[in-house]
Amino acid sequence: MYQGSHSRRKKHSRIRMNKLAILFIAVVMLIGAVAGSTVAFLLTETDPVENKFTYTKVSTEVEETFDGTTKSGVKVTNTGDIDAYVRATYVVNWLHKDGTVAASVPEGYTYSLTPNPDNTWRVGADGYFYYWTPVAPGASTAGSLLTCTVTYPEDPEYILSVEILATAVQSTPANAIQEAWGITPPNWN
Predict the structure, then answer these.
(1) Which residues pair with 61 in a beta bridge?
(2) Fewer beta carbons below 10 Å: N end or C end of the chain?
(3) CA pair distance 144, 73, nearest whole angstrom
(4) What is the dihedral of CA 138, 141, 142, 147, to 10 degrees?
(5) What's the rounded Cα separation, in Å, for the pair 89 and 115?
(6) CA–CA gap between residue 150 and residue 72 (Å, rounded)
(7) Nearest-angstrom CA–CA distance, 31 and 43
(8) Distance between CA atoms of 103 and 40, rounded to whole angstroms?
């Protein structure tokens, strides 16, 4: 039986299959070589990029003068690194020697408190005192937030605690104060 044409067909398809397999393997190897060399180049030749973005810091510190009976010169210092608006309030309590808070003014004790004696703060509807202009980093508010004088009887059991609570918000962008405190400053600059 003659099988010449039949065996040729097998031979041609086998050669064609081998050429496709070799071509496929060559393409895969070429892609692998390009990807590998690119990764190797990036790992050995590229310097890391450092993020040099720094956040601003907004913080405050309360400074005051107290001589035993009078608290005055209450200022707020911007300890941050950006101009900031400042607001403050105060809390007054009579404290017993054991640290408990008295429910009412103890008998024989009095105090006189004058808020904003220099008229350098604006009183908001929320009860906070707002400083009129932004405070630069390292600078303090002018004037005094309050002046308070206390009168104690002899051998007092209570002391007057006047705590100042201050906070700040960056002055830029202009809407920062509205977003942080929910107020719109009336032409403060």
Answers:
(1) 77
(2) N
(3) 5
(4) -130
(5) 10
(6) 12
(7) 18
(8) 74
Closest CA to 124 of 167, 58, 181, 168: 181
How far lies 45's CA from each of 3, 39, 48, 95, in Å? 62, 10, 10, 68
**Cβ 39 vs Cβ 26: under 8 Å:** no
Task: Provide the token pair at 92.
Answer: 């007054």
- Give the pLDDT of residue 2: 56
Structure tokens at 59: 């913080």
Does the pTM of the predicted model rise above 0.70? no
* Full 3-state SS string of the chain: CCCHHHHHHHHHHHHHHHHHHHHHHHHHHHHHHHHHHHHHHHHHHCCCCCCCCCCCCCCEEEEEEECCCEEEEEEEEECCCCCEEEEEEEEEEEEECCCCECCCCCCCCEEEEEECCCCCEEECCCCCEEECCCECCCCECCCCCEEEEEECCCCCCEEEEEEEEEEEEECCCCCHHHHHHCCCCCCCC
What does residue 35 show for φ and ψ, rounded to 5 degrees? -65, -45
Please name the residue that has the structure tokens 């008229």. Answer: 119
In the structure, what pLDDT confidence band is assigned to residue 132 with cuts at 50, 70 and 90?
confident
Please list the residues that pair with 75 across neighbouring strands: 63
Beta-bridged to residue 90, according to DSSP, are 164
| Sole residue written with tokens 């640290």 | 99
Alpha-carbon radius of gyration of the chain: 39
For 21-40, what is each residue's pLDDT tens digit? 888 888 999 998 888 888 88
